[in-house]
């Protein structure tokens, strides 16, 4: 059996789009039940309740989840409100405990997907399960690594699968917590259209503003659903408070989504995909230009302190030659590249002139 042949009939039990909602972390039974009740009373069909029981953190000594006790709270949510339940597993012990607690859907986080040893351990612990397993993209932009995680699961006869696009880490600071890199997710979707694909806007955006827009973008691109962090009191959340929303805000977000016709024109869908990729690249270009101008500021300060002229003709020749060389390697128009770099250089000169004239 191959990844692109599995049926994934589990998704037919839900209406499109499939919404998974709940707090980043389970904190108390009261918090879980209140959040679940308010989601239930929102008037929308949100079938899956999520909560992190174990929380892998970037640095130690932070809140790392309540542990096994939280599985009992998830079970109570299921019994009282009829949700299917979902949580993250990061090792074989988590898998054993979650299966024992009859959690319906397990997801594997980005920090686990990036490690083949961890993925193998989890796959072996899940061997033969009929539970639905969702796999987040790895933290680094590596499509092969993401696919490899699925292949390890399939090798252990795990065939109810789904993918979660949660964005990718980057050293550069951007408007996103994790940059979307739509191209990678869309390459996955094109290669495996049979595997349901979810957006995780909470981890991509990293704040409440922008969640609705990003979710809509994903729906426009034919994603099957969204996982959105929802908390009864987001400002008081023990983890990732800034990216969580109330159940009422969630209801508004979901009700305002414009759902694409599954039988819509494929050329229109392709247009939307390419526009999203262009927007993603444009965002990266702006962030890189911002970083470049910050370096120009440092150079301007050095030139001022050492009484060096702003414009250095030899340096401009080097920049221009490099740009033309890169243009030839990419078959792009040399005149276009020259115009772009000339504009960048002119702005850099303006930045440094401003520093030279400040307080002089």
UniProtKB/TrEMBL annotation:
The keyword Isomerase applies. Its EC number is 5.4.99.5. Keywords: Isomerase, Transferase. Residues 265-356 form the Chorismate mutase domain. InterPro entries: Aldolase_TIM (IPR013785), Chorismate_II_sf (IPR036263), Class-I_DAHP_synthase (IPR052899), CM_dom_sf (IPR036979), CM_II_prokaryot (IPR002701), DAHP1/KDSA (IPR006218). SMART domains: CM_2. The keyword Ion transport does not apply. One of its GO terms (molecular function) is transferase activity. GO terms for biological process: chorismate metabolic process. It is an enzyme of class 5 (isomerase). This is chorismate mutase.
């Amino acid at each position: 059996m191959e990844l692109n042949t599995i049926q994934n009939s589990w998704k037919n039990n839900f209406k499109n789009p499939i919404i998974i909602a709940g707090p980043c972390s389970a904190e108390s039974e009261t918090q879980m039940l209140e959040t679940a009740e308010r989601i239930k009373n929102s008037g929308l069909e949100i079938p899956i309740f999520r909560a992190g029981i174990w929380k892998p953190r970037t640095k130690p000594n932070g809140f790392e989840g309540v542990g096994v006790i939280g599985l009992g709270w998830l079970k109570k949510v299921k019994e009282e409100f009829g949700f299917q339940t979902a949580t993250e597993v990061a090792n074989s012990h988590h898998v054993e405990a979650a299966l024992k607690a009859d959690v319906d859907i397990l997801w594997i986080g980005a920090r686990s997907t990036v490690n083949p040893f961890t993925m193998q351990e989890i796959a072996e612990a899940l061997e033969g399960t009929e539970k639905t397993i969702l796999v987040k993209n790895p933290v680094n932009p590596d499509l092969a690594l993401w696919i490899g995680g699925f292949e390890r699961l399939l090798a252990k006869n795990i065939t109810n699968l789904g993918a979660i696009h949660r964005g990718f880490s980057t050293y550069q600071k951007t408007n996103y917590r994790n940059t979307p890199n739509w191209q990678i997710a869309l390459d996955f979707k094109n290669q495996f259209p049979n595997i349901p694909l979810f957006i995780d806007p909470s981890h991509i955006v990293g704040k409440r503003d922008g969640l609705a827009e990003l979710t809509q973008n994903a729906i426009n691109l034919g994603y099957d659903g969204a996982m959105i962090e929802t908390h009864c009191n987001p400002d008081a959340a023990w983890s990732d408070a800034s990216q969580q929303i109330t159940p009422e805000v969630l209801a508004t977000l979901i009700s305002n989504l414009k759902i694409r016709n599954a039988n819509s024109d494929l050329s229109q869908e392709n247009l939307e995909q390419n526009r999203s990729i262009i927007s993603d690249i444009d965002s990266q270009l702006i962030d890189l230009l911002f970083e470049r101008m910050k370096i120009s500021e440092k150079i301007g300060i050095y030139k001022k302190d050492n009484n060096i002229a702003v414009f250095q003709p030899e340096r401009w020749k080097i920049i221009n030659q490099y740009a033309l060389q890169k243009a030839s390697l990419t078959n792009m128009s040399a005149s276009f590249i020259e115009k772009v770099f000339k504009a960048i250089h002119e702005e850099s000169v303006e930045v440094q002139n401003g520093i030279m004239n400040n307080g002089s």
